[in-house]
Amino acid sequence: MDRSVLTRSAPEPDRTLRYGDAPEHVADAWLPGAARHPLLVFIHGGYWTPEYDRTHTRPLATALREDGWPVVSIEYRRVPGKPDDLVADVRAALAELPGQLGAREVVLAGHSAGGHLALWASSVCPPPGLLGTLALAPVADLMLAHRLGLGDGAVAAFLGGPPDERADLDPVRMAAPERPVVLVHGAEDGLPVAVSESYVDTHPVAKLVVVPDAAHFEVIDPLSAAWPAVTTELAGLAALSS
User: Fold this and answer.
1) What whole-number distance in Å separates Cα of residue 151 and Cα of residue 142?
2) Which Pfam families does the entry link to (predicted)?
């Protein structure tokens, strides 16, 4: 599995925004000189743990900026056993940040645990002007991910216990989002494609794209062979613009 994107150097953001008072209530923005696409709000992954922050999204955000996408990559509190604080941060960021950038239309995206959060938000608190959601290798079914022991028990660590009683945080057990949803998942991902398949089985209006020969991090790596699949699906969501 190629993890090089996690530590690859990339340009600093053009701006850093705030959406609350906590140190984590920040977001980095990459702003093209002439935007050709709607605002992309990106939620980073890392199994909801403090070990991973938004820094590793810089290669992705830089590449998308070069393609004409304004990108804002949000940070959020990541304290094991306090999921409600985390999702409150995502809710607040989505309510606040697009307006700070004057965005009228938004594409929401996230990777891994961030993909889970993007799917959650698209059902519960979609940002104004949401066109659609792109979930990259998402933890789309918390019950299944917990049964599979993914991330050495990451789901239970995030929730503070097993997911049985938290259907309100489990995308596969929530109402389908009103706007289109696309999941992109590498065929060789250690977070199995079955987790995304479970979501699409429950919400058949969602679209699943399985990328051959791709593992977990290729779908956020602009240097990977999987990247064109990601940009193609983003372009499709952007085309829903009125």
Assistant:
1) 12
2) Abhydrolase_3
Bridge partners for 27 per DSSP? 17, 74
Q: Left (φ > 0), alpha (ψ -120 to 50) or beta: where does 47 sit?
A: left
**Between the CA of residue 173 and those of 125, 144, 154, what are the distances in Å?**
16, 11, 19
- Which residues are 17's β-sheet partners? 27
Amino acid at 219: V
Dihedral of alpha carbons 129, 132, 138, 144, sign: positive
Q: Cβ contacts of residue 127 below 8 Å, gap of 6+?
A: 41, 94, 95, 98, 106, 108, 121
Tens digit of pLDDT for each residue in 78-133?
999 999 999 999 999 999 999 999 999 999 999 999 999 999 999 999 999 999 99
Tally of CA atoms within 13 A in the half-sphere of 163 that contains its CB = 25
Give the three-state DSSP class for 51. Answer: coil
Do residues 196 and 138 lie in contact, with contact meaning Cβ atoms separated by under 8 Å? Answer: yes
Going by pLDDT thresholds of 50, 70 and 90, the confidence category of residue 2 is confident
